[in-house]
């Protein structure tokens, strides 16, 4: 199910399904609103964006956060729902979202990081293509949705319907090969929150996109091992690795002091397979971001460093 593209005059709903927006981050939220309005779009904020639950971990209770999601999907004026930021507790609302309502009111739903669980779950339960893209918060062109690149990719993907990804980094072939499949995944650790649940995505013939935040060698090893033990690699058509904060931003060293790269660990974990693997830096945490359709089709040619997205908005 493909949502409709945005047009000038449309309204974007901002929500916080995971972490809340405190006073310190309120300036980032206000900057986000200015950016959206700069595209000729209107903004409507969710009721619980700045609400803090009793533990200070989330934007209100699971019921309140799910209410914001359901309300935005039910609101005929809203054409896109954009998660302000990530966090750690988005999976608390999975059983509280109205998937029948979502299916009857398809619209663009975009988020990053912890919102990986929502993007993949919504696609699994409804068939709606969702979007892995930058947080709505803006304030630093190198870390948030405030770079010219991110703005261009937003307009190109969601307002014009283009599937081209502009390269701003040197793409690297990790393993040769070509593949065509639906894009699934997002943040590796957050994706694994869905393991063993009814929300785990169908990864048959998929191109798995992976990124990480503040991760290290041992954490990456156990996560990749879990994917292997779950039989995920048996199903994949290919893998595209994004910007991995912790490996690309900081150096991870082995016992002998040699630098280790995330893509090396992926190659090691998948050594018994021959599907293509491509490394790019155009999606992830604290980097200028393109927008990837979760559930949308794409073609991958790792050797020639090509990754082309097919139609994902009407």
Properties at a glance:
6-stranded mixed sheet; 314 residues; single chain; Glucose Oxidase, domain 1; 2 domains; globular
Write the layout of secondary structure elements.
Blueprint (H helix, E strand, L loop, with lengths): L10 E5 L7 H16 L3 E4 L16 H13 L3 E6 L15 H6 L3 E4 L4 H11 L3 E3 L15 H12 L12 E4 L2 E10 H4 L14 E8 L3 H13 L8 E8 L6 E2 L5 E2 L1 H8 L7 E8 L7 E3 L2 E5 L4 E4 L5
Parallel strand pairs: 1-2, 1-3, 3-4, 4-5, 7-8, 8-9, 9-12
Antiparallel strand pairs: 5-13, 6-12, 7-14, 10-11, 14-15
Helix pairs in contact: 7-8
What this model shows, in words?
This protein folds into two domains: 11-160, Murein tetrapeptidase LD-carboxypeptidase, N-terminal domain (Rossmann fold, 3-Layer(aba) Sandwich), CATH 3.40.50.10740; 172-309, LD-carboxypeptidase A C-terminal domain-like (Glucose Oxidase, domain 1, 3-Layer(bba) Sandwich), CATH 3.50.30. It is 26% helix and 24% strand. The chain has helices at residues 23-38, 62-74, 99-104, 116-126, 148-159, 188-191, 217-229, 262-269; strands at residues 11-15, 42-45, 78-83, 108-111, 130-132, 172-175, 178-187, 206-213, 238-245, 252-253, 259-260, 277-284, 292-294, 297-301, 306-309. The strands form three sheets. Strands 6-12-9-8-7-14-15 form a seven-stranded mixed β-sheet. Strand 14 and strand 15 form a beta hairpin. Helix 7 (217-229) runs parallel beside helix 8.
